[in-house]
Amino acid sequence: MPKNGEARVLPIYQSTTYKYDSSEHVGKLFDLAESGFFYSRIANPTVDAVEQKIAALEGGIGAICTSSGQAASTLAVLNICNAGDHMISSAAIYGGTSNLFGVTMKKMGIEVTFVNPDASEMEIQDAFRENTKLVFTETLANPTLVVSDIEKFATLAHKNGVPLIIDNTFATPINCRPIEYGADIVVHSTSKYMDGHAVALGGVVVDSGNFNWDKGKFPGLTTPDESYHGMVYTRDCGKAAYLVKARVQLMRDLGLTPSPNNAFLLNLGLETLHLRMERHCSNALAVAKWLKINDKISWVNYPGLESNKYYPLSKKYMPNGTCGVISFGIKGGREAAVKFMDGLKLAAIVVHVADARTSVLHPASTTHRQLSDAQLVEAGVTPDLIRMSIGIEHVNDIIADLEQALACVPE
Ligand SMILES: *Cc1c(COP(=O)(O)O)cnc(C)c1O
C-alpha cells in the first residue's frame, strides 16, 4: 500500500542497482542482517510487491517471481533436489514441465517417476524410493483438465517425509488454494490467467511455510551453505528457509529473474483476476453445455460438466468453477476440425491459452502435426480434438461464432 503522497499505482523500479550511504550498510544487506535491495537479480521493489500480493492470494508466507513458468518449476525442484535424487510427478502435467523433468533434469542426474494421477494411494506409494525428494502435480492439468486429488497426494508425500509441489496455473488461487489442502509449495506460470492479457511471460514459487525440512532428507537446507558464509537456512531463517535458499543461492546463481516491467504488467492482471476468472468459468460452462447438445460435436471435456469424470473432485477443490479451457471433438475428424477452425471469426487460432480473448487450437494440424492418426490417439490427442480457451467476451458472441463456424462443416 502506498504511503501518504506516494504513487497510487505500483511504480516500475527500472533499476538493476540501489544506492547506499555506507559500505557498512551494504555489508549488513549481504549478511541478511537488514532487509533491503542491492541487485535486481536477487530482488527488486516492483517484483517484491507482486510477490507479496501472490503470496497473500495463495495463503503462503512468501513468494519468488521468476522469468517464466518453466523457471518457477526449475527453481522449485532444484532448491531441494540434487544429482542422484528422485522425484514423483503426475503423468498428467503440462508438456513443457514433462520435458523439463523427463529430459533436462534427467540429464542433470535427477530421476523422475511419472504416475497416473488417478492411481490409488497404494500404487503411488510403490513409486517412492529412499532418495525421493518431492511429489509434483497440477491442480487442473493443462491440457487434459485432469483434476488432482490434492489431499491424496499431500498425504502420500507427507507420509514419506517429502513436500508436495503443485502447479496451480489453470485454477489460480481464485478457484483453488492448494495450501489449504496440504500442498507445501505452489508454482504458477503467471503467463496464463494471472497476467490474463498475453503480454508477459512469468512464473512464481509460493511457500506455505508449513513443511518441516529438519528431518535429515534435505541437507541443503539444514547444513551450512559455504557459498553463503555458512548460513544454515532452517536454523537462521526458520519458516522462510526454503524461500531464502531459493533466493540467495539459486536466484543468485541461475538468474531466473523477471523484469520489473513484466512484474508491473503482471500486477495489472492480478488486479482483475477475481473478476476475469468468474467470467471465464461461467462462459466456459455455458459453451460446454451448448456444445454437448450440438449434433456436430461428438464429445466435450470440461470438469464443470456434471457428466465429467472429474466433476466430484472439481466440486471438492474448485467449488466456484475450474477454468476457461475446454476440449471437444468434432464429428468428421481432422478434416471437419480444420473446416470449423478456419470458419471462426471471433476466436483466434493461437498456441497460447488462458487469456482474456477466446482462442482455439487444433493440435493434430499444429503442435502434433508430425504424428499419424494412430500416434495421436496414443498421445491422448485424438485427430478430432479441438482445444478452446474461452475468453471474457459476452457469451452470446462466443456461441454465435461457434454456431456460424459449425455451419461451415458439412453434415
Ligand atoms: C504454460 C504453463 C507452464 C509453463 O509456463 P511458461 O510461463 O510458458 O514458461 C507451466 N505449467 C502450466 C500448467 C502451464 O500452463
TrEMBL record:
<dbReference type="InterPro" id="IPR006235">
    <property type="entry name" value="OAc-hSer/O-AcSer_sulfhydrylase"/>
</dbReference>
<dbReference type="GO" id="GO:0030170">
    <property type="term" value="F:pyridoxal phosphate binding"/>
</dbReference>
<protein>
    <submittedName>
        <fullName>O-acetylhomoserine sulfhydrylase</fullName>
    </submittedName>
</protein>
<comment type="similarity">
    <text>Belongs to the trans-sulfuration enzymes family.</text>
</comment>
<dbReference type="Pfam" id="PF01053">
    <property type="entry name" value="Cys_Met_Meta_PP"/>
</dbReference>
<keyword id="KW-0808">Transferase</keyword>
<dbReference type="GO" id="GO:0003961">
    <property type="term" value="F:O-acetylhomoserine aminocarboxypropyltransferase activity"/>
</dbReference>
<dbReference type="InterPro" id="IPR015424">
    <property type="entry name" value="PyrdxlP-dep_Trfase"/>
</dbReference>
<dbReference type="GO" id="GO:0005737">
    <property type="term" value="C:cytoplasm"/>
</dbReference>
<dbReference type="InterPro" id="IPR015422">
    <property type="entry name" value="PyrdxlP-dep_Trfase_small"/>
</dbReference>
<dbReference type="GO" id="GO:0071269">
    <property type="term" value="P:L-homocysteine biosynthetic process"/>
</dbReference>
<feature type="modified residue" description="N6-(pyridoxal phosphate)lysine">
    <location>
        <position position="192"/>
    </location>
</feature>
<dbReference type="GO" id="GO:0004124">
    <property type="term" value="F:cysteine synthase activity"/>
</dbReference>
<dbReference type="InterPro" id="IPR000277">
    <property type="entry name" value="Cys/Met-Metab_PyrdxlP-dep_enz"/>
</dbReference>
<dbReference type="InterPro" id="IPR015421">
    <property type="entry name" value="PyrdxlP-dep_Trfase_major"/>
</dbReference>
<keyword id="KW-0663">Pyridoxal phosphate</keyword>
<dbReference type="GO" id="GO:0006535">
    <property type="term" value="P:cysteine biosynthetic process from serine"/>
</dbReference>
<dbReference type="GO" id="GO:0019346">
    <property type="term" value="P:transsulfuration"/>
</dbReference>
